[in-house]
Amino acid sequence: MSKLPQITTSIFSVMSQLANDYQAINLSQGFPNFPEDNQLLEISSRLIKQNIHQYAPMAGVPSLLEKIAWQTEKKYNRKINFSSEIIITAGATQGIFTTINTFISNGDEVVILDPSYDSYEPSILVAGGKPIRVSLREDYTPDFNKIEKAITSKTKLIIINNPHNPTGKVWTKTDFEQLETILEKHPHVMLLGDEVYEYITFLQPHISFNTRPKLIDRTIIASSFGKSLHVTGWKIGYLIAPAQLMNEIKKVHQFQVFSVNSFSQHVISEYLELVDFEAISKMYQQKRNLFQELMKDSKFDLLPCEGTYFQIVNYSRISTKKDLDFAKELIQKHRVAAIPISVFYSDHTDRHMLRFCFAKTEETLYAAAEKLNKI
């Protein structure tokens, strides 16, 4: 008997396989194809010879935990106890899964805002919970009337992804204030803040749950060095939460993975003394600007991209096909891979939108745009 009978191969695997089959330019899956920072590679080369290859402590390498606490205070002015309020995870996805399976029991409801990242619902179902899917507005801003109506006595958790994958939207101060007003009435509701793109924003600064005193005591924050440092294959993420919540998370984490890749933790710990996150954000902004400039004369209509490294486009001027069918046609006929947005909705809402990943070399973006402009 399957716990996830409705789950099939992920759309990311499907599109990447099609891209391989047709030798298409892959702007579908969200990973960079450019080299890592030389400083990171130099640290890796040096540390690989050191005695750091056995199990790391369950919560994480202490020096890395300290660096995360330091970075969080520097960026968000939040002081964190590194020994009791942070844990290193095997990517943010494992941290999210662990959090959900720590706090969600049979019958608990979890509110998800669609379009939503595809790991949320399966994690809830495995825990025995019930996903409550609430659609964002057509401009991908939160509809707080719908969110409030979705909250019941059974609601245990709300998942907020900001900056938002797949749409690139970034929450405003007003958004957070409206959420706080709603949650004042529902003290039993916890929050999971998926902030893996926190260092990749453009039009406005990222507002973290770390900066919201009214919400901090009920919030678990997930982030990712894989995204922030463009080393997605390292699968190093982390959670930040108040000690009483983190203590429960650790109970589940220790029997799921126990500890996370020791070598990568040591390398990142040292690298955090050198990395410039503002420079990383500017680098992605340049890539976004380049891709938008290259696409300005195409028949695709580009939506605003406020954060992440994804660009949403509307293809209504090109085709009336469903987005999944058009995405497959784009690969087969035009040799460019994208992700259809309908797959991120429970009801498969289709507004003729695709997601392109611009975390690519200039050469790749030029080549992809050349093909897309001919459509």
Question: Which short descriptors sum up this protein?
Answer:
13 helices, alpha/beta, 375 residues, globular
Q: Could you walk me through the main structural features you see in this protein, from its secondary elements to its overall organization?
A:
The protein is of the alpha/beta class. Helices cover 38% and strands 15% of the residues. The chain has 13 helices and 13 strands. It has helices at 11-21, 38-47, 62-76, 91-103, 120-126, 144-150, 173-183, 225-228, 243-256, 262-271, 277-295, 323-334, 362-372, and strands at residues 25-26, 86-89, 109-114, 130-135, 155-161, 190-194, 219-224, 237-240, 301-302, 310-314, 336-337, 339-340, 353-357. The strands form three sheets. Strands 2-8-7-6-5-3-4 form a seven-stranded mixed beta sheet, sandwiched between helices. It has a four-stranded antiparallel beta sheet with strand order 9-10-13-12. It has a two-stranded parallel sheet with strand order 1-11. The chain starts with 10 loop residues before the first helix and ends with a helix. 44% of the residues are buried. The mean pLDDT is 96.
User: Which H/E pattern describes the elements?
Assistant: HEHHEHEHEHEHEEHEHHHEEHEEEH
Range of helix content: 25-40%
Give the distance, in angstroms, between the N- and C-terminal Cα atoms.
46 Å
Give the strand content. Answer: 5-15%
Specify the overall morphology.
Answer: globular
Rg (CA only): 20 Å
Structural class per helix/strand content? alpha/beta
Number of strands: 13
Let me know the largest β-sheet: 7 strands, mixed
In terms of per-residue confidence, which ranges show pLDDT below 50 for 5 or more consecutive residues?
none
Mean pLDDT: 96
Cross-sheet strand order for the largest sheet: 2-8-7-6-5-3-4
- Number of contiguous helices: 13
